[in-house]
Amino acid sequence: MTEKGAISIPIEERQPLLGDNVHDQRPARGCTRGIFCKRCVVGTHADSKKRFFLRRMIAGMLIVWIYYAIFGYRHSELDRHGGKHHHHHHHDHEGGHGHNNKCVRKDLVPWERGPSKFGTSAENISLRFGNGNMFSKVDVVSSGDVMSPMVLVNANVTKARRHCHHHDGHDDGVKDTVSTKQTQHLGLHIDVDEQDDEFSMTIWADDHLEPDHGRDHPDDPDNEHHRCSFCAGLEVVILLPESFTTFGRLFVEGVVMEFQARDLGRITFDTFSVSTTVGAILLQSDLVIATEIFAHSTTGTVEIASVTAPAGKPLKVKVTTTVGAIDVNAVLPRVVADAEDQSHEIDLSTVTGLVQIDVKAADEDILLTKKGAATVPGDAQIRASSDVGQIITTISLADDQLLFLNSKSTTGQIDTTVDDKFLGNIRVQTDMSRVDVFEAEDSKSEIEYEKNSKQLKVGHKHLKDNGDDSSDENDSDIVLRSGFGQVALTFV
Kindly report the CA angle at 53 between 48 and 58, in degrees rounded to 5? Predict the structure, then answer.
């Protein structure tokens, strides 16, 4: 029954009602017409296309990551260049830096013919890794088993094959010594020299097992010699007598995958210097005592668990990296009052790594006190910089100790915590973010600001009952600056 004047329209089975939103209907799964499909809802293919490419991109990145995670590490230690070319002990080694993806650890065999133990009475040790395809690890440790310094070398080298072994007519069963000059067939070379109270060792390797590598061989049309690349893996241990209380200069340089110093006892070094082109530098001894410490790593981290200088002398620390992080804990000893140099200097610099530094002032030295020597805390001059990474600094001061702190970063955040004993000038600045200065609770000092804005705070911290005497030329200084990161200075 229809109302008068109404029009009756027959409805077929499965036909949508007029009130339904037919535009929300989507085509059946499996449409292949893409953007030319007139039946599909506008924008549907655009969205699905974006999701399709996003899934493909994520899957591709995951495959690449898995490949490098599994296969990249195995070759990474061997594919890096062999460092600087050293002209040492009258030899000029021909050839370039060793690069060979086929040179992996599973292909190496023990180097049984080479010398492995070197004793010395020198008070200075220099270890260099020269040219060649090598990966190495160096440990420095004190031991009660030795009476004089000793260097132990354990090496694994490329296994020689018949077509690339050099037949020199000599019996290779005889163990070579340091004085042996014809050791090219071994591929690995150790040059040792001891003079002027310094033990000097240089380790280098041939790029190939054949001594005249790189030349044409008429009897070898397939140039099989060129395929016999050589590499070596080394573990070097420098043993220092546990009874030692002083040592001169320790110097290590070259392609070192990891340098580690541990259990050094109470040995006091004049200079402790380590430079690696690849690996990490880890000074994990409970306490490293040295007047000067230099550490540089191109791609590795540098960690110094605890370092201080001999009693009565200022501490000098310089650490640089390109990629790796820097973590240093330093104790500043009191300095003899009549010393010409009374300034502790700590300089930490990296391009992309994180910088963390914790500095504490040492207590009075009992031996110096018994001798009646007058001491002063010494000025603390600390510089930290990172182009990209964050800088975290914690400083505890002695009474009347001056602090000159300069931290800067281009994009990283700067967090600095300083002892409330600090009195002097502060300048905290950022170009694009914000700065904060937090004063200590119940502080005896206060800060008078010349400039106080969201991005710049310049002022002078002085004792409350003495007024603001900013003309004192002996005032300490804190300068913190970041281009894009936040900067915070907290007094505790």
Answer: 125
Rg (CA), the chain: 34
pLDDT tens, residue by residue, 143-153: 999 999 999 99
Q: Encode pLDDT of 157-194 as tens digits.
A: 887 655 454 443 333 333 433 333 333 445 888 999 99
Residue closest to 281 by CA, chosen among 263, 253, 304: 304
Containing 368, the helix (H) or strand (E) segment is helix 366-370
Q: What is the pLDDT of residue 101?
A: 41
Token output for 84: 């600087």
As to burial, measured by CB atoms within 10 angstroms (0-12 exposed, 13-18 middle, 19+ buried), residue 26 is exposed
Cβ atoms of 487 and 431 closer than 8 Å: no
Cα Dmax for the chain: 124
CA distance 239 to 372: 36
Report pLDDT digits (tens) over 353-396. Answer: 999 999 999 987 777 776 778 899 999 999 999 999 999 999 99
Query: If you average pLDDT over residues 257-279, what whole number do you get?
Result: 93
Tell whether the model's pLDDT for residue 39 goes beyond 70.
no
Burial of 393 (0-12, 13-18, 19+ CB in 10 A): buried
Tokens of 285: 């001894």
Task: Give the residue among 309, 258, 108, 126 at the shortest CA–CA distance from 200.
Answer: 126
Q: Tokens at residue 266, please?
A: 């109470």
Mean pLDDT of the chain: 78
Please choose, from the candidates 386, 323, 324, the residue with its C-alpha nearest in 3D space to the C-alpha of residue 349.
386
Instruction: At 230, list the tokens.
Output: 């050589």
Answer for the pair 118, 239: CB distance below 8 angstroms, yes or no: no
Q: How many residues make up the chain in this entry?
A: 492
Cβ-based neighbour number of residue 138 at 10 Å:
24
| Residue among 48, 14, 54 nearest 31 (CA) | 48
pTM of the entire structure? 0.72
The tokens describing 17, both together, are 């009602």
Q: What is residue 111's predicted lDDT score, i.e. its pLDDT?
A: 83
| Distance of alpha carbon 86 from alpha carbon 356, whole angstroms | 34
**Cβ(111)–Cβ(235) under 8 Å?**
no
Interatomic CA distance for residues 390 and 482, integer angstroms:
10
Closest to 304 in 3D by CA, of 313, 182, 312, 290: 290
Residue-wise DSSP of 1-26: ---TT-------TTPPPTTS-GGG--
* pLDDT computed for residue 132 by the predictor: 85
Specify the DSSP class assigned to residue 188. E
Q: Is 47 helix (H, G, I), strand (E, B) or coil?
A: helix
Q: Is the pLDDT of residue 28 over 90?
A: no
What is the distance of C-alpha 400 from the center of its chain?
35
Classify residue 311 by its DSSP letter. T
